[in-house]
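quick one, 267 residues, struct below
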Amino acid sequence: MADWEDRIKEANETYSRFVPEAEPERVFASMERKLGALGTYAFTAVGQMWNRPQLSRRDRSLMIISVLAAQSRDEELVGHTRIGLRHGLSREEIEEINLHIAAYAGFPAAMAANRYMDEAFCEVFKVDKITDRKPADHIGDEERLLRAADVRKTLTAGRANDNPEQDLAALTDQLGGLGDWAMKWAFGEIWSRPELSRRDRSLVVIAILTALGQEAELAFHVPGGLNHGLKAEEIEEMMTHMCLYVGFPRAVDGMRAARQAIEKATK
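---
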């Protein structure tokens, strides 16, 4: 059972990484002075949560940047992009999140997130503009289907149809033209890129779906996360952390959906 001094110590450790240019005690005093009780909890609850050992700091940044981008929390996204770099994420890895934002939360959210990420990148790297981005591979449908089949094989632990054309036909039968786009673009292009591991991509997508309250999709992507190397305890820790960033109701719904999916997947 942590007492007040223990909680403050943990929060100080977190904020020494969040705001390395300032002493944590001064940050705490400033937050309480400006925000009152909200400042107290923003320092202590947030600080303690980020110091929990069940997920790495890199994983937590990957998750929270995804959540903030999906929710268009612009000012917070700038700050957490800087924090993500301090926690070991590369600029390219953070940018890769936006491809999943485009697919799972929509292009308007991804375009806005890109602008605010750039604000942080330019500040950290002391440049006026980010100019060295690489375009995606220019590939046709045959290659897209081959890559999609590989992704779906790992997501489903081999249960997806080995024949890409038959797998595409099944998705199209279920979802019409949307199934075609899911197979060729979401799985065949975005999920198959090497810039993030599939474990990281599952973490990102589970975070986005939880932030958006998409429990039905979690039933598919939570088992996919397990197949990609996430542990059940790590997925539950994601839901615990997200109570501070999406609110308790959505975090509770996410935890329930995750536990149901994990139980079904591990029977």
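The two ends are 34 Å apart (CA to CA).
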